[in-house]
Amino acid sequence: MSTTATGLRRLSLVCLATPDQDSAIAFYESIGFEKRTDTPFDNGYRWVEVYLPDGSTGIALAPPRAGSEVQPVETGIVLTTADIESTHEHMRQLDIDVDAEIMRMGDPVPPMFLFRDPTGHSLMVVEEP
Fold first, then answer.
1. Are the C-beta atoms of residues 112 and 103 closer than 8 Å to each other?
2. Which of 9, 20, 69, 79, CA to CA, is 20 to 30 A from 2?
């Protein structure tokens, strides 16, 4: 594996602040993620990581810093699917906060939609070409 001049090699995790880790774990597991790490640390906190089954980049579902309030953000996280219609419909059936319509902008932009996790953070699903 090659590295950059700074020594950076790969993206391993994206960290999302979540006030209710158990709810977030259940949500991400409901859409196909698996919990690979759930480790307690200082003051009753837990470090939780979820990954897609074939994925090597995960999402850390971390408690907010002491004294800070979690604000929903557009995460910039993009997940891919082979069948955007099926994935969209499945998420709707799970009562996930998902865009009502799939965005179709035409080539070269693939079909996509946004959904929100229990904290309100938005993620994108894009159909692979």
1. yes
2. 79
The stretch 102-128 carries a mean pLDDT of 96
Dihedral, 10, 11, 13, 15 alpha carbons, nearest 10: 140
pTM over 0.85, yes/no: yes
Amino acid (1-letter code) at residue 118: P
Q: Which domains are assigned to the chain? A: 13-127 (3.10.180.10)
Sign of CA dihedral 5, 55, 80, 13: negative
Q: Characterize the bridge pairing of strands 122-127 and 34-41.
A: unpaired
Q: Looking up tokens 């907010």, which residue turns up?
A: 64
Evaluate whether 117 touches 29 at the Cβ level (below 8 Å): no
